[in-house]
Amino acid sequence: MPDESYNSLLTEFLGSQNLRALPADIAKLYSQHVRRRHAQPSLRGWDDTTWRSHWESALRLADAALGAEEVGLSEGNEGLRRAAEIFEWLTDAGCESVEIDEVLLIAAACYQVAGYPARASGVIKAARPLKQEVWLAEAYLQGNFPELFHRVRDHWSEFTGVGARDGETELESRAHPGILRSLGVVCAHMRWGDSRVGEAAQKLSHFSAVMQHRRDDSSWLLARLFARIAQVYSNSGLRTVVTGLRAHGDTSAN
User: Fold this and answer.
1) Cα separation values, 206 from 46, 162, 167, 203, 220, Å
2) pLDDT of residue 111
3) pLDDT over threshold 60, residue 141
4) For residue 100, what are the CA distances in angstroms to 37, 94, 200, 212?
5) Would you kindly state where each structural domain of the chain is located, as residue ranges?
């Protein structure tokens, strides 16, 4: 369990981010996002270096905010919301060298963990059509469990019995079946109340550690967010709430 010094560092960092206001640099990003979305010219002086600076700042913010959220600090949700906004605005701000679909997924994942599922779903819907490679993540982030179940089933044959794909390590390739099983367990939990959901979330967390060794600078964050979302789903599902109420009722009756 993180010690008090770790929590203090997170609180201090997030407190320095001015999360309840819109600093000038973030306002500039939002303006660029609006201009590009409405097919207007970019702001003067806006370039890939500016985009990259916002991107790296958002990665640091999301990392710290997720750590704060995991240990129950109130600043965590605010930090994730702001990080989600930055990622969302970056998708329209323009940078040719970045895979925009992944930025959208990170934005939606941050919104989901921060407690804004409607905004998470809205980000995904506004971005359609997404590449087929991220359809599984799309259903997961929207909480569309019937569709997620079908997509897990359809993807199973693609990720089993094959070697590493382009850009993958052998370890990542071996992890894919476990990821699919974990997502399937999350679906089962939301439908029937599967007791293995905690173990499934833990496996997704282990996969995020594997992704830290990739050359790109964001896959580890998306994997970590996915693991946290599994925990959020397992704790907020109607079946979990009803079971808790039933147990409380039985105790009261006694």
Assistant:
1) 38, 21, 20, 5, 11
2) 95
3) yes
4) 14, 9, 28, 20
5) 1-129, 131-247
